[in-house]
Amino acid sequence: MYREAGKTRFQLDLRRHLRSQSICDNLIHLICEIAEASKYVINAVRTGDLGVAGTSNLYGEEQLALDVLSDRILRKRLIHSGVVCNIASEEMDVVYQAQAEGPGLYSVAYDPLDGSSLVDVNLSIGTIISIYKGCDIFQEGRKQVAALYILYGPRVSMVYSVGNGVHEFTMNSLMEYTLSRENIFMEPAGDIHAPGGLRKKYTRGTENFVSYLEGKGSKLRYSGGFVPDINQVLMKGKGIFLYPALKDAPKGKLRLLFELNPMAFLIEHAGGSASNGKIPILDVKPECLDHREPVYIGCSEDVQKAVEFLALEADT
Ligand code: F6P
Ligand code: MN
Question: Are residues 25 and 133 in the same domain?
């Protein structure tokens, strides 16, 4: 609770908000456990005293890179939550089975510390989480029951959806997540763009699309971190992020399970869309843990325009 110009306001915390979402207790518990884990991740990122893998700390123990440490923090918490069967992490080569299939269990795919190369230069980074009911992790993203990300920026924020609106929470001085924006909604078209990858490697369709955006006065807003870049597009409610097919990487760079599906779920539930240039990201059937796809994600009219430019390229 806090006071503002004579008024008393209640800060709605994450757990209470989740309870208003008509979801089962296990899912509430799981999301709250992930929120708890993120407090240890941000602490490690902020103090930054863990060094790099292969070096030793004061006590002669091996130190961990932040992405490896973040992975362990999250995995441990998920295992101990008691409500998770399978876990897939961008940091692991195989699916980890926390417990055998059973009623009321969930599977989680996550990117523990996206953009970790930006830690050195003190730019914003994040954690991205995708949640499915049951033990199958290789389902289309549309079957997710929840998705969220945590943005470690000047402020720490969490954005989640369980399919009933998209909501933002901000970490307060007590490290509690309290509601800051509810039912975030995107405009049909925007005026900022965040284009990933090297432009000289773009195919003709993408190059023409980016030229079209520039021609209509769209501003370049790219940080190099997927979480802050998506957060900007989502919170401003206008804009597009793309990481297209490149001439030497036809599947682009970003991973379907850990990065694209959760973000596409959030953006779609905020009224935007996400496409691989042909079909919605959420309809792509994952083939393997490392499955990558090109992505155009943001305001629906902008994404539609990208799809049209790419179709034109295919025709010529
Ligand atoms: O995880 C990959 C990542 O670091 C994303 O956070 C980011 O969007 C992308 O790579 C940036 O890649 P590039 O430097 O090729 O634009
Ligand atoms: Mn990543």
Answer: yes
